[in-house]
TrEMBL record:
<dbReference type="InterPro" id="IPR014284">
    <property type="entry name" value="RNA_pol_sigma-70_dom"/>
</dbReference>
<dbReference type="InterPro" id="IPR013324">
    <property type="entry name" value="RNA_pol_sigma_r3/r4-like"/>
</dbReference>
<feature type="domain" description="RNA polymerase sigma-70 region 2">
    <location>
        <begin position="26"/>
        <end position="83"/>
    </location>
</feature>
<keyword id="KW-0731">Sigma factor</keyword>
<protein>
    <submittedName>
        <fullName>Sigma-70 family RNA polymerase sigma factor</fullName>
    </submittedName>
</protein>
<keyword id="KW-0804">Transcription</keyword>
<dbReference type="Pfam" id="PF04542">
    <property type="entry name" value="Sigma70_r2"/>
</dbReference>
<dbReference type="InterPro" id="IPR013325">
    <property type="entry name" value="RNA_pol_sigma_r2"/>
</dbReference>
<comment type="similarity">
    <text>Belongs to the sigma-70 factor family. ECF subfamily.</text>
</comment>
<dbReference type="InterPro" id="IPR007627">
    <property type="entry name" value="RNA_pol_sigma70_r2"/>
</dbReference>
<dbReference type="InterPro" id="IPR039425">
    <property type="entry name" value="RNA_pol_sigma-70-like"/>
</dbReference>
<feature type="domain" description="RNA polymerase sigma factor 70 region 4 type 2">
    <location>
        <begin position="125"/>
        <end position="173"/>
    </location>
</feature>
<dbReference type="Pfam" id="PF08281">
    <property type="entry name" value="Sigma70_r4_2"/>
</dbReference>
<dbReference type="InterPro" id="IPR036388">
    <property type="entry name" value="WH-like_DNA-bd_sf"/>
</dbReference>
<keyword id="KW-0805">Transcription regulation</keyword>
<dbReference type="InterPro" id="IPR013249">
    <property type="entry name" value="RNA_pol_sigma70_r4_t2"/>
</dbReference>
């Protein structure tokens, strides 16, 4: 079954009072929600608390929620809102400036994919280190684009930005990867083709 259709069916069931449907939504989205939240904080307990609070809120407010939102986008955006609220309360969060480079281009080829895969396997720890050194907003856009394979439009909605700003931010992130370490570029090739060829 198409994941969007399944999400919609579970959402409608949960809105009708099916707690098991909400549990399935939570279970199936936990990984992406947790990984997304790590782009803003490394406080694991805070992340877990925010995810739990999100689903408790959804249950309490189920009768007032939209009937069929884009569920994954809705959950990511809601989690981000809750997390920012708590981080601001604890004074642990600082927004990065918006980036203003030209739009990102996705021109690649299959040879780059093969090279990228080999390099990624051989140098995974170094690649992770490079990604972790990016500013938080750049980590976020890389995660949403390449790990969750969301479109620019979907990312813009989650990040509360216009499409051009998302493209600019994505290009700045890639530019920084190039400057920091050559393997960052290969990683992007690998991630891009890995999701396109599945």
């Amino acid at each position: 079954m198409d994941s969007n259709l399944r999400n919609t069916q579970l959402w409608l069931a949960f809105k009708s009072g099916d707690s098991e449907a909400l549990g399935q939504l939570a279970s199936e989205h936990y990984r992406v929600l947790y990984n997304y939240a790590t782009k803003f904080t490394k406080d694991r307990e805070l992340i877990k608390d925010c995810i739990q609070d999100l689903f408790l809120y959804l249950w309490d407010q189920r009768e007032n929620l939209h009937s069929s939102p884009f569920v994954t986008i809705y959950l990511l955006k809601s989690l981000k809102h809750n997390l920012f609220k708590k981080l601001n309360q604890e004074k642990k969060w600082v927004l990065d400036d918006f980036d203003t480079e030209s739009p990102f281009s996705e021109n690649t080829n299959i040879e780059s994919t093969i090279i990228a895969l080999e390099l990624f396997v051989e140098n995974e720890q170094k690649v992770r280190s490079v990604l972790n050194n990016l500013p938080k907003r750049q980590q976020e856009v890389i995660f949403l684009k390449f790990y969750e394979t969301l479109s620019i439009e979907e990312i813009a909605e989650i990040m509360d930005m216009n499409k051009q700003s998302v493209s600019n931010l994505l290009q700045r992130a890639i530019h920084n990867l190039k400057q920091n370490w050559q393997l960052g570029v290969y990683l992007l090739y690998y991630l891009y083709f890995n999701v396109r060829l599945q």
